[in-house]
Design goal:
alpha/beta, FAD/NAD(P)-binding domain, Enolase-like, domain 1, 6 domains, 37 strands, 29% helix, 19% strand, 4Fe-4S, nitrate assimilation, 2Fe-2S, heme binding
């Protein structure tokens, strides 16, 4: 007998005459990545269509990136995982969250949600995904058991770890059941929360679906090196509670036991096909809604995509095939005849701290397949290529410990390799890909199904000459990012073939990039701009190159013992206005004064000095995001006077005006906070004193958080430091602003000394090699080999330059002199701070100010009650009762 909704069909008949969409309503069931892909692609490819669409998701969040779910533990911010939210700005599209679809009426063409809402459809797209399966073992529902699938899962895991550890008064013990990709990510997440973790895998190796035996064994060594226990060839038999009824012990199938305060199940997924099954749609033998190569189901009005769809009897568990299915349905809806095909799938381990990747026939089951293997147990590296019987065609590959070849080789599966496979994976040749071109139909980005030919078209016909432009145009490299090195190779090759020279020069006066010029000046010993331009450039320079050269000379002067004040006599004329006057010019022509406050610390005496200065000069006072106090409205001639009072009180320049260190932000840490595990404030003060005044390609921001709660937002900074019970985790390449970037974990559990060493190396390498005006985020993204190569250079000292970089930074720190103090006590410098040479005490008569919330600000056009100076406005406020309102008054009312 056939179960309700079940069908022995493995394929369905495809309807090649899909009618047009005009005026139809589409309902998408499921709020995951594949559903979002379908909606965003339909919107992009049919911007003028008259259709409407409703997407219904069970989770309360907008669709988010499950691929990088583990990133939640480092940021504790679910918003960072949200997929492109601009999709929902389209008036044709409605997003419903937190309301699961519970019933499908195919005859009425409606779906009903848990809230009782009925949605009618003309076309239905099922994108319900999968659910996390767990073994039917006794005690699998005890308090302290979790899946690892959704934001809700990870939030509850983190909450349990915090509360349970407080209750039991000791570090927790955890067991992860399942040693696949998600299981290892879950284990790493527990480990990072200071849980003593063991992975239990029923198969004889980790990542048994993706790796061969040798790769699995090498991965085991790497995982154990992280301090995570591994038990393979054994399963979970049952679980027993502790005295209070919560999870206490995991009993394994070999009769051994593991103490377990928390258990995470990651034992596989099953397609979510319940609604489809109950509605009578054809269901595969192993579950999943049966679809053909058009992704249409057994009902002509219903399509299924992603993990809920059974294609040729298989439900895919990866992003790439789900995205391709979504693209196929969009194409069909718009009159195309595209079909879905399963390509060679690849897997890359993420968020664990070890490198592992594989693709194709890793076990060599193809008749006549040959294995070419390199094993280095000492360095924990395993590389294997599976070749055809004539050793020419690539069939598969496994890479553990070093995955540099993965992104370049995966697109070549099924094609001739064009090189000796043994030479390719041997230590001397590892990473040296043959200089052959990928065919146009070779898939470069499997996540978004982007072929090499599409990349070439973007470069040659659409003018995409940077990786950022290629990402924007093709979406390649925007999901997992593993294909970016290959994108770069294709881009460079196409530009070279087209005879297009993308200049790396600073400007028309210098053909060299900033990094090249830095090295030339370092070797040549030039001391002035004139000497630099005479040796390496032409002309008299411009606003683009002159500040860059000044920055290079300043940095090199500090680290070679020939220090130049970047805004002094020799270099000052090269700077723009802000650097030259050591203050940021404001909209009214006045300037800001922002003294340094390492870690946001300031004494009551210091506050009184700042308050008195602000009162005496009528300055507007505001706290900024760098944990500093900013004073605004100072005239040019007032700056030295203000600086002197601040310098005499112990303050120094905060360098808020320069391409240099802007701040080192910190939380309270162990000094005051009950959650702190390290003294973040003292560390932040030490870091600011070490790196203050460092001239760099762009501004630098550093933060130090005293625990995993991350109050200092360290992962949104160029250098982020987060305390652990064992030391410090170091993140690099983060920033906020218009192009926010999440910092990347460089190294874990550093002591104080090694933390400073790694930051020294990172910052000095950045200063030497980054392009002009390039933030660390973009530099890290575009660094050849990415964060992995940076880790080798900085942490492992693979180039042998670590001590040199540290020595350079030490010389910088030793030679630091406060720029404000130099200007205050240099009569020649001080004499230049005048607004009107013939009347140095006069202010600009065109400036007018108004009172707002008790402070002076520049007057806007049409405001009549104005004052000639900020001080005059403040004096009026102090003399007139009721005008200096407290800061809590109605912000919609102006004085």
């Amino acid at each position: 007998m056939t179960a309700p909704g079940h069908s022995p069909l493995t394929t369905v008949e495809d309807n090649d005459t899909t009618p047009p969409l005009e005026g139809e309503h589409i309902v998408v069931v499921g709020g995951g990545m594949t559903g979002h892909r379908f909606v965003s692609r339909l919107r992009a490819q049919d911007p003028e269509g008259t259709w409407t669409l409703t997407m219904i998701g069970e989770e309360p969040q907008q669709p988010y990136d499950r691929v990088h779910l583990s990133n939640w533990f480092s940021s504790r911010n679910a918003d960072l995982l949200t997929l492109d939210p601009t999709v929902w700005d389209d008036p044709r599209i409605t997003l419903v969250t937190g309301d699961a679809v519970t019933a499908l009426d195919r005859d009425a063409q409606t779906v009903t949600t848990a809230s009782g809402t009925v949605h009618a459809y003309d076309r239905l797209v099922l994108a319900t995904g999968s659910w996390a399966w767990s073994p039917r073992a006794e005690g699998n529902d005890l308090p302290g058991t979790f899946s690892y699938r959704t934001i809700d899962d990870v939030e509850k895991m983190a909450e349990w770890v915090t509360l349970r550890s407080q209750k039991v008064g000791r570090p927790l013990r955890g067991v992860v059941v399942g040693g696949g990709v998600l299981g290892l990510e879950a284990a790493a997440a527990l480990k990072n929360m200071e849980v003593d973790t063991t992975v239990v895998e029923f198969a004889d190796r980790l990542m048994a679906v993706q790796l061969d035996q040798g790769g699995g064994e090498m991965l085991r060594l790497l995982i154990e090196d992280l301090g995570i226990g591994v038990r393979t060839g054994v399963g979970a038999a049952r679980f027993s509670p502790a005295a209070d009824g919560a999870m206490g012990t995991a009993h394994l199938t070999d009769d051994s036991e593991l103490p377990a305060d928390i258990v995470v199940f990651s034992t596989g997924i099953r397609p979510r096909d319940k609604v489809a099954r109950e509605a009578g749609l054809a269901i595969g033998e192993r579950g999943g809604v049966v679809v053909g190569d058009s992704c249409q189901t057994s009902d002509d009005a219903i399509w299924a995509v992603g993990e809920c769809a059974s294609f040729n009897g298989v439900c895919a568990g990866l992003v790439a095939p789900g995205n391709d299915m979504a693209d196929v349905v969009v194409d069909r809806f718009l009159g195309g005849k595209r079909t879905h095909e399963r390509g060679v799938e690849g897997t890359k381990l993420k968020g664990v701290g070890v490198e592992a990747a594989a693709f194709g026939d890793v076990n060599g089951i193809t008749p006549g397949a040959l294995d070419v293997t390199f094993i280095d147990p000492f360095h924990r590296q395993y590389r294997k290529l599976v070749m055809s019987d004539d050793a020419k065609t690539l069939l598969g590959g496994v890479f553990i410990g070093d995955i540099e070849l993965y992104s370049s080789l995966r697109p070549l599966v099924g094609r001739e390799l064009g090189a000796d496979p043994s030479a390719l994976i041997a230590p001397a040749g590892a990473g040296a890909m043959p200089d052959t071109e990928l065919p146009d139909d070779a898939v470069v980005c499997s996540c978004n199904n982007v072929a090499a030919g599409t990349i070439r078209t973007a470069v040659n016909e659409q003018g995409c000459h940077t990786i950022g432009q290629i990402k924007e145009c093709t979406k390649a490299g925007t999901v997992c990012g593993s294909c970016v090195p290959l994108l770069t190779k294709i881009l460079n090759k196409e530009l070279e073939k087209s005879g297009i020279t993308v200049s790396k020069g600073l400007c028309e006066h210098f053909a060299h990039s900033r990094a090249e010029l830095f090295k030339l000046v370092e070797e040549g010993g030039q001391q002035t701009f004139s000497e630099v331009v005479a040796a390496f450039g032409t002309g008299r320079g411009c606003a683009a190159c002159r500040p860059v050269v000044a920055s290079i000379l300043s940095t090199l002067g500090a680290i070679t013992g020939k220090r130049h004040n970047p805004v002094g006599r020799q270099l000052g004329s090269l700077q723009d206005t802000n650097d030259f006057v050591m203050a940021n010019i404001q909209k009214d022509g006045t300037y800001s004064v922002i003294p340094a406050m390492p870690a946001g610390e300031v004494t009551p005496e210091g506050l009184m000095v700042i308050a008195q200065v602000a009162q005496d000069y009528g300055l507007y006072v505001k706290l900024n995001g760098a944990q500093r106090i900013g004073m605004f409205g100072a005239r040019l001639e007032q700056l030295p006077e203000i600086w002197k009072r601040l310098v005499d009180a112990g303050f120094q320049s905060g360098h808020a005006y320069g391409k240099s260190l802007r701040m080192v932000k910190a939380c309270l840490g162990t000094n005051w906070c009950r959650f702190g595990v390290q003294d973040s404030t003292t560390m932040a003060v030490a870091l600011e004193k070490r790196y203050r005044g460092l001239r760099s390609p762009h501004k630098l921001k550093i933060s130090v958080s005293g625990c995993a709660r991350e109050c200092a937002e360290a992962q949104a900074k160029d250098v982020g430091v987060i305390a652990t019970t064992k030391g410090w985790n170091l993140y690099v390449g983060g920033n906020g602003g218009a192009q926010p970037a999440h910092g990347k974990l460089l190294v874990e559990d550093l002591d104080d000394t090694n933390l400073v060493k790694c930051i020294d190396r990172f910052l000095m390498l950045y200063v030497r090699e980054a392009d002009k005006l390039q933030r660390t985020a973009r530099w890290v993204e575009e660094f050849p080999g990415g964060i992995e190569e940076l880790r080798r250079i900085i942490v492992d000292d693979s180039l042998g330059i670590g001590e040199q970089l540290e020595e350079s930074m030490q010389k910088h720190a030793d030679s630091y002199v406060d720029e404000w103090a130099e200007a205050v006590y240099d009569p020649e410098r001080r004499a230049k701070f005048v607004s009107f040479v013939n009347a140095p005490e006069k202010s600009d008569p065109g400036l007018r100010y108004v009172l707002e919330r008790g402070q002076a600000r520049p007057a806007a056009e049409g405001e009549t009650e104005t004052y000639p100076t900020p001080l005059a406005a403040r004096q009026h406020a102090m003399a007139t009762p009721g005008t200096a309102e407290p800061s809590g008054y109605d912000p919609t009312q102006k004085s």
